[in-house]
Amino acid sequence: MKKLLVLVSAILPSVLRVFLLRACGVRIGRGVRLGWLSVLHVDNLTIGDGTTISPLCFVRAHDLVLGKRVYIGSLTLINTVKLFVDDDSRISRFVIVSAGQLNAHSALIIGKRVSVYPFCWIDTTREVTMQDEAGIGGGTYIFTHGSWQPNIDGYPVAFGAVTIERGVWLPWRVFILPNVTIGEYATIGAGAVINKSIPAYSLAGGIPAKVIKADGEHVRRLSIDEKIELVRKMLRESVDQLRFEGFSVTLTDSPDEITLETDAGRVIFRSAFERLPDTGRERMVIISWERFPDAMLMSMEARGAAWIDFARRRCAEGDDPLFEAIRGIFSIHGVRFEPTSSADAVRLPDVERSKLG
Fold it and tell me: Which of 10, 86, 201, 203 sits CB 3.0–4.6 Å from 213 for a disulfide?
């Protein structure tokens, strides 16, 4: 009966669907949006705050856990035993996740701030793991099995998990075969075929893929001043994007500070802050290269100001449109932040970065 109600509810508005699923005992957080004709044929379902499942999705799983602010795009098909997607990760539209044959090993495990881009095909006959901040470019195929001809006649048959470690970048049209691990912060060339594991911090490409540069030799080493100037450049270039998104923007650029005055509030970037700027009751997004003083973090939360801390690689929790637009602009340049309350940011250690960071 419960499954029937879940299936029938696909034609209902999101608010009614959420109410009905909660009445059936499903754990659903606040601000969850379930698109029209999205079907969730799931035995055990948990959905975190602010998660969106777009219209015309089909998800079939025994265990489905979606963290906070997860996004699943339209026309996505998922058929696996276990699906776990952690906070702030995205599965774009037109993605297929399916096992050649459902079994106890069928699973897709996705960490935080992972993006899976359109037209990917992910085979979960065995477990596929994507660790935090991995990027899976469009048209990527990941296979955990390769079998058709009989192994008893000597033909090759392969089954094996695939692990994509933290910070890996796969451009478009990468093909990954079973029993492969791609080490953290490795970069893969477009169109590569990966049939064996790739070391961490390496640049690899080709058919089959080979290591081109090892141990981060392809990564530029930047001074602190160069990094700060790149942040300033991103904010200068953000003006056109913010105007495109409907904000009225005025840029003030001085040696010590960049300020974006908008109709939705003020964005301020400095290399360091000692105290909260006095801007009256105006909404603010405060960005610092160095760690905010702990007391200032608490003051910003009490004041309702959004904040971004490059040293901690953390940011405020919230969905203010201006704040989300600024986060999105940084994300386009590959810079992502973990949403955290000010109390947690004070208590927790900095987010672990790559050894090259």
Answer: 203
Cα–Cα distance between 39 and 6 in angstroms, integer? 8
Query: Which domains does the chain show, CATH number per domain?
Result: 2-213 (2.160.10.10), 224-347 (no CATH)
Entry pTM: 0.91
**Positions in the chain whose pLDDT score sits under 70:** 1-9, 279-280, 352-357
- Distant-in-sequence, close-in-space partners of 91: CB < 8 Å, separation ≥ 6: 71, 72, 73, 76, 78, 85, 97, 110, 116
Query: Is 334 in a helix, a strand, or coil?
Result: coil
158-159 vs 145-146, strand pairing mode: antiparallel
Distances (CA, A) of 189 to 116, 120, 172, 200, 286: 17, 16, 9, 15, 36
For residue 34, what are the β-bridge partners? 53
Q: What is the pLDDT of residues 132-158, one digit of tens each?
A: 999 999 999 999 998 888 888 888 899
The residues pairing with 259 across neighbouring beta strands, listed in sequence order, are 252, 268
Buried b (16+ CB within 10 A) or exposed e, 162-177: bbbbbbbbbbebbbbb
CA distance 341 to 287: 15
| Phi, psi of 207, rounded to the nearest 5 degrees | -130, 105
For 167-200, write each residue's pLDDT tens digit. Answer: 999 999 999 999 999 999 999 999 999 999 999 9
**Hey, what amino acid is at 209?**
A
For residue 106, how far is the Cα from the chain centroid? 22
Question: CB neighbours of 327 closer than 8 A, spacing ≥ 6?
Answer: 308, 315, 337
Provide the strand spans (E) within 203-296.
Answer: 203-205, 210-213, 249-253, 258-262, 265-270, 284-288
Q: Is 242 helix (H, G, I), strand (E, B) or coil?
A: helix
